Amino acid sequence: MTNHKQTQYPAPAIRAYLGGSFDPVHKGHLQIAMYVYQHLLPMAKQLNHELHVSLLPNARSPFKKQSTDPKHRLAMLKLATTNTPIQIDELELWQAPPVYTIDSVRTLRQRYPHDRLIFIIGMDSALSLTKWKEGLGLTDYVNLWIFNRDSLPDINVDTKTNINDHNLSENTPNLVDENHITQNVTELQSQLPTALQCLVIGSPTELIMPNVQTQINNSALKNNYQGHIYIDPRPVTAVSSTQVRQKLQKIPHVLNIKHTAETQITSLQPINDIMCNTELNPLAKWLNPAVYQYIIAHQLYSAAQFR
User: Fold this and answer.
1) Is 193 within 8 Å of 203 (Cβ atoms)?
2) Which of 66, 184, 251, 262 is the most exposed place for a label (fewest CB within 10 A)?
């Protein structure tokens, strides 16, 4: 009887997911994921729970008409997460689009009925949840960790952005300067859909404590679970993958780099030289050198591709 209970109720893990097209993946994605990981790690150790923070690439967003081949996006994600604790979950990647977040969180809750599940989104996405398929129902299955993302007019960012270019597995990401943390959580809370405002809590600790979680009915997925919402008061500088793609269409011409379809770059050194020169290439702040190498070698994001 005891062994049966141990099998049915294993020690819960903490699982956080950052979804997106990652087309292409850039350092902003990794910084948010690492920020969450490093904030949850001490709590996970204290509770003796496993911690998994994963990127959740989608097949294609319901709001987009096209996206790069999943095999390329997955390859770039693997390069970007090398030597980091960040994982990749392929749940959505190979499904026929469109794939909806509500279906994914139901699947995750069914897969991990007793784990602490957190879905990471930006405030821009949180404010548009009423436009998502059953968007207000996400908290029936997961907690939400919301970041207040300050969008940039252009990715030619200056030093005020203060992005950390060190090894992401060893350093806490520098999201933005402390002087930029001015948004009032109460104000942000008031902007959420009314049905979600009462779910806001004041600390990420409350997302993973046992008293926040309730048991799920596996048979029907209609449960007594009530997720909570943490609004992170630290705004992060948001560069979009769309901006990166637009720059990638221009950068090779600016740098006079010529590659054919057969060209395979065997050394990272030339790419590192390019990526370190932020005066010539503003993408140096945002793309992992190995990802940039992959993009050039496979001729991704050319103007012809997006005509």
Assistant:
1) no
2) 262
Helices vs. strands in the chain: H and E counts, helices first: 12, 7
Q: What is the rounded CA–CA span in Å between residue 291 and residue 266?
A: 14
Q: What span, in angstroms and rounded, lies between the C-alpha atoms of 80 and 58?
A: 17
In our burial notation (b when 16+ CB lie closer than 10 A, e otherwise), range 290-299 reads: bbbbbbbbbe
Please, what are the averages of pLDDT over each run of 10 residues along the chain (307 residues)?
52 93 92 95 94 92 71 96 97 88 95 94 91 93 88 44 34 46 74 93 86 42 72 78 81 44 43 48 79 88 55
Measure CA 136 to chain center.
20
Q: In what order do the strands lie in the sheet with 200-201?
A: 87-88, 51-57, 14-20, 116-122, 143-151, 229-238, 200-201
Find the helix or strand (DSSP H, E) in which 143 lies. Answer: strand 143-151
Query: Per the confidence metrics, is the pTM higher than 0.90?
Result: no
DSSP secondary structure letter of residue 211: G
CA gyration radius, the chain: 20
Q: Which domains does the chain have, with CATH numbers?
A: 13-238 (3.40.50.620), 241-306 (no CATH)
Q: Measure Cα distances from 151 to 122, 156, 235, 243 in Å.
A: 11, 13, 10, 11
Cα 292 from Cα 274, distance rounded (Å)? 10
DSSP 48-89: T--EEEEEEE-S--TT-S----HHHHHHHHHHHTTTSS-EE-
